[in-house]
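TEACHING EXERCISE
Course module: macromolecular assemblies
Task: Read the component lines below, then compare them to the predicted structure of the full complex.
Student: A.B.
Group: 4
Components provided:
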Amino acid sequence: MNYKNVAFLCLTLFSANAYAGCPGTSPIDRQLSLAEESAAPIQSEAGLLDYLNAMPQNSPLRAFSDDAMASFVASLRFNEKGLTSFSTIEMERELTLGQAYDVLSLLGAQRSARRLPIPIQGERDSEIMKMLSPRCEDHHYSYQCVGTGTCKTSASSICTPKC
Amino acid sequence: MTVLLSALPKSDSSTSTLYDTVRDIESRPETDGDRLRIMRHAYDEGIPPALRSLECDSIPIDRREDLFLATHLVVVHRPDALLVDRLICLHDAIVATNNARPYHHHRVHGVLVASRRFSAANQLRSKFGISVSELPALELAGGTGPRRLLLSEDGVTDVPWPNQEGWQIVAVVHPHCAPSQRAMSKVMDGSTWSWMLPMLTLLVPAGSAWEEGEMRKWNAHHPTHPMAAEVPGRTPKGVATNETPVFHLLQNGRVIDTLRGMPEDGEALEAWRSRVVEEPMERRRSP
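Instructor-supplied answer key:
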């Protein structure tokens, strides 16, 4: 599934989401999240290595400084289901909201972008926030995944639903 | 991860910062207590005297960012008042040189929320236009003994922990934690784990965000099992709150067992069930 398909699915599902209750994570949100995750170019440590070895010139990761990119990549944790944790401080310090959204889209975690304390600057950032605001939250900010199914306090990490 | 890093551009920097040091320690495999001791020791060794005496304006400008991030990391794990004061001191110094960014303000705000200094957090929010909701009025009770924050129509109230006689299960959960959501869904669905409902207390740990909307939503759907929020330092002895979900089994107010996460096979919880449900019934049946 490519980005355009995901965007179409987003539009379709968001119109339905206005009527959905949101105890925990709604079925609509789960479907949308699964679509984003399955469209992500990086879904495992092996996939990450492949991506880094042939990183496109226009890769969203290139928005980072070298240090921040290394630090962010080193923070990525995967299990057999997918991405379980990642660091946020590098995005908060160096990226715009749109750039952070693009980096997180590589990992299928773009819905967590709205939790990042990055100011909205420009039309695209506003559009992203508008698109993300109806989503139920299932990314745990200030926590990292430890072991199976447990999120633990961490100063600048996010614990994902794959934990 | 070393293999992955070799695929990245080479970094120019060769010196590691205090933040790098404490961040490395944060992800080490030692027990919580050991890791925090090592982290605190490294932090105490690495900070300048000016930070200890809260004279942050005399700290060189190019050191303030590193010290801010390192102090924030340590205070998240050990929120004592001294460290909170240091973080605020560094924040003020960074603001004074016009180098503050939203992530600085949010980190200080988050620490104030976690330490339940809601009034100070609201002042920070107003001053810097932080994009978070205003926090409710909160007055913490003094004294000793376990307490928790309950949401009511009137706002937020600091109340004593419920009667601790007999068996009690404290589930440390968070509305934004997917594993917590899965665990609570299993417990509340009225089947396998429903035996624990009469003795279950839900506790949301003190974190950087005050999730009142999510907690109220949960409470409206589950009036018999509302989520309460932690008062730092006032949980029953032994109830750790740095992971979610975690289940603590208490007998007469004392933690006697802890389960991290929601075990898929349910074996460990089954052992709890036979301990707290079947054994007392058998005792009642025997003469």
